[in-house]
Each structure stands twice: as C-alpha cells, then as structure tokens.
Amino acid sequence: MKVAIEMISIAFIFSLSLKGGFCEQKNSEDLSSVIITVVYDNNEYDPRLEKEWGFSCLVKGTEKTILFDTGGNGKILLSNMSKLKMNPQEVEIVVLSHIHGDHVGGLNAFLDENSKVSVYLPHSFPSSFKDGVKKRGAKAISVDKPLKICHNVYSTGELGTWIKEESLLINTERGLVIITGCAHPGIVKVIRRAKEILKTNVYLVMGGFHLRGMSEKQIGEIVEGFKREGVKKVGPCHCSGNLARKLFKKAYGKDFIPVGVGKTIEIPFEKMGT
User: Fold this and answer.
1) Nearest residue to 72 (alpha-carbon basis) of 42, 99, 43, 106
2) pLDDT digit string (tens) for 25-42?
3) Strand ranges inside the chain, DSSP E
4) Is the dihedral of CA 140, 79, 36, 57 positive or negative?
5) Residue 3 and residue 71: Cα distance in Å, rounded?
6) Contact 188, 229 (CB under 8 A)
7) Which range, of 25-39, 46-60, 142-156, 203-217, averages the lowest pLDDT?
8) pTM for this model (two decimals)
9) Is 189 within 8 Å of 159 (Cβ atoms)?
10) Which of 126, 84, 91, 124 is nearest to 109 (CA)?
C-alpha cells in the first residue's frame, strides 16, 4: 500500500512538471515589482496633491527604499507623502541628483522626520552641505564615479562639467530604468552613459529632461536620440516642458507615460539579478 501511494505521488509530480506546474513558478522572493511614485512635481496627476516646481520620487520594491531628490519645499514634500500614505521612516536611502534648490530644498525637513538614512550626493557638493547632512544625523556619501547603491540600483556617478549631476539607474526584468533630476549634462548623454555602465537595454527614461525653451526642431533631435538608443518608454516631467511632452507623446504613443505628482509606475523587478 505504501509503495502504491509513493508511485501515485511520483506520477502526480511528474505530470505537473510536464504541464509546467513547477517550471513556470517563481519564488515570490525572487520576483516582485519596483514601484516608482512621483511625490513632488510641477505637473499635476493626482488632484489631491500639491504641485510645485521641483522633483522627487519614491522608489520601493528594491532592496532599499529610496527617495530620489526632495523637491524644493519640505512642507509640500511631507504633505504629499502623507496624503499618499507614505511613511518617511521607511525610507533608507536618499539620492540627490544635483545642488539646485528645487531638488534639495526639501531635504532638511525630511531629515527632521528621518535622519537614519544614507544620503548619496554628487562629489562636487560643497563641504558645508555635506556637513549639514551629518549634523542632522544622516550619513553623507559622496559620489564621483558610477556606484552600486544597493542590489540592482546604481548611480551614474557625477556627470557634466558646469552643473554636475547624477542619475539613478534601476535594473528591472524589462530593462534599465533611468530617473533624472534635470539632466543638465544632456539627457541623451545620460542615456548613453547608463548603457555603457550596465551594458543593457533601456526600458524607461523618466524625470526632468531640461528641454524647456528649446525649439521644436531641437526637441525633435532629442526624441530621435531616444529612438536611436532604443528607449522603450518615456515619462518626461518637471523641467522637460510642455512642448517636449507633446512631441514625446506624439513619437511614443502608448509608450508615453504622463508623469506628474502622484503618478505611480510599476515594473517587474528581478531580485536575483546582478
């Protein structure tokens, strides 16, 4: 009887494997999603939230919860986070793209709520800024070259010559996600550098593209640059400008993502990757 039961069990397991019952399953610890929520922007998306010039987004689902930039006003940043039911205490890492006030202005208010974070900032930030971060109890990490921040999350390192800036890179199941603050070094240059660093295709580029005031022809050349670099989806916001958003939407169609404060983007994320 015992032998018969064992034989039935083996046959059942074998039949499941033939049907893909085990082969198609992935451990829930191996596969999840990276969730990017814009918590500060001058473009409206969620009418409950206050829009203001600047940029910040929260990245969850990665090994560490990351706040990328802090907008220009800490009160607005924290208010929007509260309305989205986001707890500042859950943030483990803050990444600052560049020194401009509309990206770092909310930092002190945030650190007053949660100083137990590591703040990654470009090497060119003045010592007084770094000292201010430390005085509030946070750890300041100066970034010069490309750097792994946590599992599957990287900084491009400091790029540009005049206004130096770092961008955030996330390796996902669908390809590379690039988040820019203002892309002062040039948005296409940032994309190329990201591809050089991680040797993979680009799924999404989102954030500030710094295209306000450019002509339709100039922006058109940027759009062509995105296409040449194989960018699958785009989400321009902040300093990208309305004309750029219009032209990217025309060029990308369903692959254009309307990004504004409150927008959430969810992408499959391979935890067991590099």
Assistant:
1) 106
2) 333 344 489 999 999 999
3) 31-41, 55-60, 66-68, 93-95, 118-122, 139-143, 147-150, 153-155, 168-172, 175-180, 202-208, 233-237, 264-270
4) negative
5) 68
6) yes
7) 25-39
8) 0.87
9) yes
10) 91
Does the domain spanning 30-270 belong to CATH 3.40.710.10? no
Question: Residue-wise over 103-126: b if at least 16 C-beta within 10 A, else e?
Answer: bbbbbebbbeebeebbbbbbebbe
Tokens encoding 238: 């902040």
Tokens of 136: 């509030």
Question: In the structure encoding, which two tokens stand for residue 257, read together?
Answer: 């993502």
- Taking residues 229-248, what's their average pLDDT? 98
| Per-residue confidence (pLDDT) for residue 269, from 0 to 100 | 74
State both tokens at 266.
Answer: 């969810």
Residue 1, Cβ neighbours under 10 Å: how many? 5
- Chain-centre distance for alpha carbon 230: 18
pLDDT tens digits for 181-231? Answer: 999 999 999 999 999 999 999 999 999 999 999 999 999 999 999 999 999
Domain locations along the chain: 30-270
